[in-house]
């Protein structure tokens, strides 16, 4: 119950702060989203909640401030390039069709978005867009690249059906977005915002101003203008977006509410959910921009959200695992055979996972009979993470960085998967690979997306526990091992619902 109570107390503080600021700048910041990885306030408030000594003094780093000052010029350069390359095609395909009511899909562009045959398959929406095309529903796919900029230009130029969202900005808005954030920086300090019995108005104000001068807030603000401009050119009957309560999502929703209030806004909960995912949970009296409905990828995630979310405006409905079409098919495969001496360490797309990685490598350092494979997240490649690794326990000769292999290939050669909060853990359970979860602090929020599942999974807080757990898994009887695999598969089926045409039509016809 401790987690439950903290979530509500913390959500009340952010809701009260939103009522005070309630401006474009506020909704563009990470503090408003309660992002579990990127907003340091969560740890501060948990220390207060746990009656620990808590100090909070966010400082805007000079390096980040310089980036914030220069970032409009980078986006101006990119915008000029986009206008030159794509102007004729975008005008021909979208801008002239102003009378068409589109279903607008917001997504992201990955290297794997382009199939071997050269066709485009959306990583987030997949079958839903294909079903919309089958039903002759006019649609626009707006993407932001999760890949090097120059590569995204090459890929986007080969696919007529997608549009880089930045293209729809005007040149002056590149600078106007920064001006609004600077104007919000001068906002009046709030008063009377309490967390339990502690006045936290000062801390909220400090973090808010710190967030305003960030690249994250700037790019979120750009989203408001992107959709404002799009809605002046085309009609939109529906707007589909991946939904986690993040700043860019809220800015997009604000634009639709203001410039196209009749558009149905449909969110899709596409990632795993743990008690630490406060960005999914609201409280009563919220004023944050939210979709009309959010479809979940399965029953399990809806149950978790319903347990912690008290914002009655947020409506969740079970749909299916759109992103995991291949995974739902493989659910019917036989679990892999045990015996592999390879350990897969699955990481998240945030530097916060460095503590987990270092503690794991420390525990594995003397276990030379195990081969270690590190699989990084696309958002945080190993080259960016490497500087946070404790080199005392990083043996390059015995540790492999997974490159060029599919996740399934990595899982099929693994005997155990170590994770903190990664989706990979569910995919491992699906294939019958046992899990070891990292819990960095017994009193902290739970980051484990499988916190309600205790079968075929073990946990550690310190490196010294790792050899014991590996020995326990190795000595498991074949009967108990197979029973654990069967229970794991049943759990995954409740987490990732299969997608059929009935589900797709329900999402398209909402």
Characterise the protein shown here:
- By secondary structure, this protein is α/β, with parallel strands linked by helices.
- Helix content is 44%, strand content 14%.
- The protein is built from 20 helices and 15 strands.
- A 7-stranded parallel β-sheet has the order 3-2-1-6-7-8-9, sandwiched between helices. It has a 6-stranded parallel β-sheet with strand order 12-11-10-13-14-15, with helices on both faces.
- The longest helix is centred in the N-terminal third of the chain and has 34 residues, at 62-95.
- The chain is globular, with a radius of gyration of 23 Å.
- The protein starts with a helix and ends with a helix.
- Residues 326-332 have low confidence and may be disordered.
Q: How would the blueprint of this fold be written?
A:
Blueprint lengths: L1 H20 L2 H4 L2 H4 L7 H9 L12 H34 L5 E9 L17 H8 L4 E7 L3 H9 L4 E3 L6 H14 L9 E2 L2 E2 L1 H12 L2 H19 L1 E8 L4 H13 L4 E6 L23 E4 L2 H10 L7 E3 L6 H6 L11 E5 L7 H11 L6 E5 L6 H4 L13 E3 L5 H6 L3 E4 L4 H7 L4 E4 L18 E4 L5 H9 L3 H18 L5 H8 L2
Parallel strand pairs: 1-2, 1-6, 2-3, 6-7, 7-8, 8-9, 10-11, 10-13, 11-12, 13-14, 14-15
Antiparallel strand pairs: 4-5
- Number of strand elements: 15
Q: What is the end-to-end distance?
A: 35 Å
Shape: globular
* Major beta-sheet overview: 7 strands, parallel
Oligomerization: single chain
| Total DSSP helices | 20
Average pLDDT number: 87
Q: How much strand?
A: 5-15%
How do the strands of the widest beta sheet line up side by side?
3-2-1-6-7-8-9
Low-pLDDT runs of 5+ residues are: 326-332
Question: Into which percent range does the helicity of residues fall?
Answer: 40-55%
User: What structural category do the secondary elements indicate?
Assistant: alpha/beta
Radius of gyration (CA) equals: 23 Å
């Amino acid at each position: 119950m401790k987690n439950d109570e903290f979530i509500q107390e913390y959500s009340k503080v952010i809701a009260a702060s939103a009522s005070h600021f309630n401006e474009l700048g506020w909704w563009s910041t990470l503090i408003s989203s309660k992002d579990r990885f990127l907003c340091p306030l969560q740890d501060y408030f948990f220390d207060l909640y746990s009656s620990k000594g808590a100090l909070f003094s966010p400082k805007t780093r000079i390096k980040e401030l310089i980036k914030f000052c220069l970032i409009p010029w980078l986006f101006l350069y990119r915008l000029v390039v986009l206008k030159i390359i794509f102007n004729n095609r975008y005008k021909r395909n979208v801008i002239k069709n102003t009378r068409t009511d589109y279903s607008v899909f917001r997504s992201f562009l990955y290297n794997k978005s382009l199939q071997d045959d050269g066709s485009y398959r959306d990583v987030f929406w997949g079958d839903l867009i294909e079903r919309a095309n089958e039903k002759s529903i006019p649609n626009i796919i707006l993407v932001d690249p999760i890949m090097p900029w120059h590569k995204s230009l090459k890929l986007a130029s080969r696919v007529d059906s997608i549009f880089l969202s930045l293209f729809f900005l005007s040149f002056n808005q590149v600078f106007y977005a920064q001006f609004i954030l600077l104007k919000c920086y001068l906002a009046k300090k709030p008063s009377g915002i309490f967390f339990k019995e502690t006045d936290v108005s000062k801390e909220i104000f400090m973090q808010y101003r710190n967030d305003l001068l960030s690249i994250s807030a700037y790019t979120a603000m750009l989203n408001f203008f992107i959709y404002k401009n799009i809605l002046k050119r085309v009609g939109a009957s529906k707007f589909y977006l991946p939904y986690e309560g993040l700043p860019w999502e809220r800015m997009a929703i604000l634009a639709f509410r203001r410039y196209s209030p009749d558009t149905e806004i449909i969110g899709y909960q596409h990632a795993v959910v743990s008690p630490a995912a406060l960005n999914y949970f609201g409280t009563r009296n919220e004023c944050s921009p939210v979709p009309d409905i959010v479809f979940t990828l399965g029953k399990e995630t809806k149950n978790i959200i319903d347990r912690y979310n008290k914002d009655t405006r947020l409506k969740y409905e079970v749909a299916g695992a759109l992103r995991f079409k291949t995974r739902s098919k493989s659910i019917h495969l036989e679990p892999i055979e045990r015996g592999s001496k390879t350990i897969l360490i699955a990481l998240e797309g945030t530097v916060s996972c460095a503590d987990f990685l270092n503690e794991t490598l420390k525990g594995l350092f003397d276990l030379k009979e195990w081969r270690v494979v590190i699989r990084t997240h696309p958002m945080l490649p190993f080259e960016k993470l490497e500087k946070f690794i404790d080199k005392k326990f990083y043996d390059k000769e015995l540790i492999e960085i997974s490159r060029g292999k599919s996740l399934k290939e990595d899982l099929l050669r693994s005997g155990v998967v170590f994770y903190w909060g990664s989706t990979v853990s569910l995919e491992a359970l699906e294939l019958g690979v046992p899990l070891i979860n990292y819990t960095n602090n017994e009193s902290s929020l739970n980051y484990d997306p499988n916190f309600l599942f205790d079968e075929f999974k073990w946990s550690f807080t310190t490196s010294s526990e790792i050899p014991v757990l590996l020995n326990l898994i190795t000595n498991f009887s074949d009967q108990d091992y197979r029973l654990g695999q069967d229970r794991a598969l049943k759990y995954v089926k409740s987490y990732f619902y299969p997608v059929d045409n009935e589900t797709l039509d329900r999402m398209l016809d909402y």
